[in-house]
Structures are given as C-alpha cells and as structure tokens.
Amino acid sequence: MPEIELSAGTIEYTDTRQGAGGTVVLVHGLAFDDSVWDAVVADLREDFRVVVPVLPLGSHRRPMRPSADLSAQGVADLLAEFLDGLDLHEVTLVQNDAGTAQLLPGVRDERIARLVLTSCEALDNYPPGIQGRTLVAASRIPGGLFLLLQSFRVPFLVAMGSSLGGMTAHGIPYERVRRWYRPLLTNRAIRRDLARFLRSTRKDTYLRAAERLRHFDRPALVAWGAEDRMMPPATGRRLAELLPQGRYVEIPGAGTLVPVDNPAALVGELRRFIGESA
User: Given 133, 179, 241, 273, which residue has the most CB atoms within 10 angstroms?
Assistant: First the structure.
C-alpha cells in the first residue's frame, strides 16, 4: 500500500488514482481497516478516484507517535491533514461506524464538497451500544483491553450480538475478522493507540459536532442501516434533520457495517447523490 508521513505518524492508504467523476474518500470505523470498503471501491473505481486511508483506530499496522493526539477530534484532524497531504479537492467524504468525518465540518472542511454519513456514532449515542460501552470500560482497567480482545480469537464469541455479530445483518467471515484484529492481538503499540482513542474521546464530542453540522451548507446524505441495532435509525434521522441540505435514506438488509452488508444499495445511493449534487 502507498503511505504518507503525517504529524502523528505514517498512514497507509488505498488510492485507485483514476475516474473522471471526482474524488471519493471512504473512512472506516473503530477496529476496521480499508478492506471494509472493498466492495464499494470495486464498484466505484471505474468512474471515480477512490481513496481509503487506514486511520489509527485499531486495525492500522503502523503505530502512531507516542505524542500523537488520538482522540476522536485528533483523528479527524489527522484525516484533514491526510486530505491536505494528497492535495485532494472537492471531495465526497463518506464515513461508516466511528464518526470522525462529522467532526470536520466547521473545523477543517475546506476540501469537502459533499458529506455522506452511514451508520455511525452521533449526537448522544456515544459510546454506542453494548459493544462501545464495553470497549470504553475495558480501556480504563489495567490489562482490561488486552483481555477483552482475546475474545476475537474465538469465532463463536465474535458472532455474538454483544460483539461484531451485533454490527452486521448477515454475519462476517472470520477471515476478515482475523485481518482486522491481528494488529491489536499481536502489537502492544497498536493496543496503546486504541486505548488512547477510547480514553480521550469525551462523551459530548458528537453533541458539540452536531451544533457545527447545523451550519454545514453543502450537500449531505445520511444513509443508515435499516437493521442497525447499535446505531439506531432514529439517530440517523435526527442527524439528517440537523444538516441544512441533509437527506435521509435507509439501506435495506444492513446493520452498522453498511458497506459490508449491502454495498450495492449503498453504491446506488452514492452515485445518485453525487450525480444530483454535481
């Protein structure tokens, strides 16, 4: 993978470097990497330049510097620095799961032409669901995060509704889970980075971001998983109502991991949204 040196450390990324329809930047969530977007990239790459950074949210393979700000806002600022570093303009920014992209409007949004938020942390839903609350609690107990992560070595435990099984409507092949969680299970510095994110992200982070979203005057799409239990659709509808040019759609047959559960429907909505707002 290509990589770029930023203030927090080295960031790997996918870049299709082609497509006349503009640039789409896809942002993954907590403890996922660029591969969560594989099906979406495969569909969009002929018509758009598609860029997917691997942010330091647990599945990254290059630890960040010890001094890096890895709070949610710090990671959002790193995303803005990434857009600057690649000199990307008029970007369609698409977020899933962790809400880092929604922290840029009103702060570092000069390169964003359109914003797409699929099922993600928002408003007062942080930490989200039993999964989010368990992660945050474990990060505050010495050795707690390491012990919790051992459950991801067991397919049966991963499939439970209180784990990744609760984030998807159709299940996830365990081979993908092994890819996502290998860095956390094998590298103490990666676990340190994730713990810093969990410990330093304040409960009111997304409420404060919501106030800034009220002034985001560019096209915005909120595409929520219709079967999402961790990020309830009611949260998505409230989020869309905040955005001056916001529109809300539900993706059928999808939980939190919309690009995994129903990538075809999501791509259809993305193409329609970009085409209508071009």
Answer: 273
C-alpha atoms less than 13 angstroms from C-alpha of 30 in its C-beta half-sphere: 29
Using CA atoms, how far residue 100 sits from 4, 25, 116, in Å, is: 19, 13, 12
Token pair of 231 as six digits? 């990020």
Helix (H, G, I), strand (E, B) or coil at 106: coil
In the chain, the N- to C-terminal Cα span, in Å, equals 30
**Mean pLDDT taken over the chain:** 96
- Closest to 14 measured CA to CA, from 47, 49, 46: 49
CA 213 – CA 133 distance, rounded (Å): 25
Task: Examine residue 56 and say whether the peptide bond preceding it is cis (omega within 30 degrees of 0).
Answer: no
**Nearest one of 131, 190, 178 to 154, comparing CA atoms:** 178
DSSP-based three-state secondary structure for 5: strand
Under a CB-based contact definition with an 8 Å cutoff, are residues 174 and 158 in contact?
yes
CB–CB of 115/216 below 8 Å? Answer: yes
Tell me which DSSP letter residue 86 carries.
T
Q: How far apart are CA 11 and CA 239, in angstroms?
A: 29
- Give 39-85 pLDDT, tens digit per residue: 999 999 999 999 999 999 999 999 999 999 999 999 999 999 999 99
Domains and CATH numbers, the chain: 3-277 (3.40.50.1820)
Numbers of helices and strands, H then E, in the chain: 11, 8
Per residue in 230-262, pLDDT (tens digit) is 999 999 999 999 999 999 999 999 999 999 999
